[in-house]
């Protein structure tokens, strides 16, 4: 039985969409590969940042919900997203983040890899982790030179009330392997392992449950090859007593959602068809794209959404070069 591959995408909650866009497409230099709306709440953008081609495994997405309270850290929630950066680029990134006034929370070595810890403008905890080079599509128009560009998702960290319960589900149902432990974090690998496949779990039996909010992670989506693979895994998930949704057509991929036994919202997302299904690959992200069933409401939807300035215009912090 083939388990999930690595991360497909991670979806988080932001506040103001322009600030979100300025940070991810501007400061971090990722490509806005899709500008769409939340399919269940079309008055809200859904912004997707990835490598130049929007490959599965490179994609960090946001729902800007400025009226939500801040995320409450706790169990049953992802507490950090790690992005892969090239070997030797931590100092470049430390300089760039300082230039744009980004709060860096520190530097660390985790599981043998150097990383920089920071928060995005709305409080989302991020780690930039140096990795051996991995395949990605460079974005020629990025403000970040190709040699330093973000390579994609590296992993995610979650807090759980019971490690045993979540471990059983990860390994027996989704095909993860327990591979390492450091400072209380237990590392699991999906698929072949490596950058993009890590899930780190910290057991906090006495902590309160976390809750969604600005600066929080909404869900972690894991790769499945195709619809057949997704259906197989969906059946296993249902068998394990967790209640998956039916497969939902997200147009750029098909999705099944469920909460793992500890409460973290997971998704199984197919690798295809991908973001170029409805836009010229050269034009990704430049205009609002709606799934076919929302097309009849385009005018009304566009009227409710704030106007976004893209590409972003960045102002370095006064006094820095
Ligand atoms: Zn998703």
Structural account:
- There is one protein chain.
- This protein has 321 residues and is of the alpha+beta class.
- A hairpin with an 8-residue loop joins β11 (185-189) and β12 (198-203).
- It contains five helices and 16 strands.
- The chain has a single domain, classed as 2,3-Dihydroxybiphenyl 1,2-Dioxygenase, domain 1 (Roll), CATH 3.10.180.
- Helix content is 16%, strand content 36%.
- The radius of gyration is 19 Å and the shape is globular.
- Zinc ion binds at residues 9, 11, 219, 221, 255, 267.
Q: Supply the number of helical segments.
A: 5
H/E element string? EHEEEEHEEEEHEEEEHEEEH
What number of domains? 1
In percent, how helical is the residue content?
10-25%
Tally of strands? 16
Radius of gyration: 19 Å
Write down the overall mean pLDDT: 95
Annotate the secondary structure layout.
Layout: E1 7-14, H1 17-27, E2 31-38, E3 41-50, E4 59-64, E5 77-86, H2 90-99, E6 104-110, E7 113-119, E8 125-131, E9 152-160, H3 163-172, E10 177-182, E11 185-189, E12 198-203, E13 217-224, H4 227-239, E14 248-249, E15 253-259, E16 265-273, H5 298-304
Parallel strand pairs: 1-4, 5-8, 9-12, 13-16
Antiparallel strand pairs: 1-13, 2-3, 3-4, 5-9, 6-7, 7-8, 10-11, 11-12, 14-15, 15-16
The structure holds zinc ion.
